[in-house]
Amino acid sequence: MKSQELRTLQGPLKARYRDDPGSALVTLRASGGLDEGIACSVETGRALAVAGLHPAAGGDGTDLCSGDMLLQALVACAGVTLRSVATALEIDVRGGTVRAEGDLDFRGTLAVDKQTPVGFRAIRLSFDLDTDATDEDMATLLRLTERYCVVLQTLASSPDLSVTS
């Protein structure tokens, strides 16, 4: 996709959102069914993903780990965002790799140590890009990717959460 094609695609949306800010608010949803054993099937829109226990929590490794899925969502969002920003700025990115890794202490989630936090302690996102972009262009590309990546910003801002039955 070329920069002008992206502008043509997004232009009417941006105009509508400026004129009617309420139309920009979209509620995304996900649901899953509780499976036999300790597993949950999540509808991805393309296929059914079965999440279960990570081997460090007693799983056998055959089911997806929700922590891995969180990192995969970050990689996917950051990759799409980087491509969009590069296209808009006409920065040629021929290819590359997006990686996310996170540190998780399973003593928290397994209630081995109540002082150990549950969840990721740190998440690192990195890009290895095939590009001839200048250092300045790369800095802009990464800054704007970070700024506009929905998953990254959600993790960084800790949105209001609620749990109900």
Question: Could you please describe the fold and organization of this structure?
Answer:
- The chain is of the alpha+beta class and 165 residues long.
- The protein has a domain at 65-157: GMP Synthetase, Chain A, domain 3 (2-Layer Sandwich), CATH 3.30.300.20.
- The protein is built from five helices and six strands.
- Strands 1-2-3-4 form a four-stranded mixed sheet.
- The chain is globular and about 50 Å long.
- It starts with a helix and ends in an 8-residue tail after the last helix.
- The model has no long low-confidence stretch (mean pLDDT 91).
Beta-strand proportion: 15-25%
The H/E string reads: HEEEEHEHEHH
CATH architecture of the domain at 65-157: 2-Layer Sandwich
How do the strands of the widest beta sheet line up side by side?
Answer: 1-2-3-4
Structural class: alpha+beta
- What is the helix fraction of residues, given as a range? 40-55%
Number of H- or I-type helical stretches: 5
Terminal Cα separation, in Å? 44 Å
Q: Summarize model confidence as the mean pLDDT.
A: 91
Q: Provide the CATH topology of the domain at 65-157.
A: GMP Synthetase, Chain A, domain 3
Radius of gyration, taken over Cα atoms and rounded to an integer in Å: 19 Å
Uncertain spans: none
Top-tier CATH class of the domain at 65-157: Alpha Beta
- Main β sheet profile: 4 strands, mixed
Global shape: globular
Task: Give me the CATH superfamily of the domain at 65-157.
Answer: K homology (KH) domain
Q: What's the count of strands? A: 6
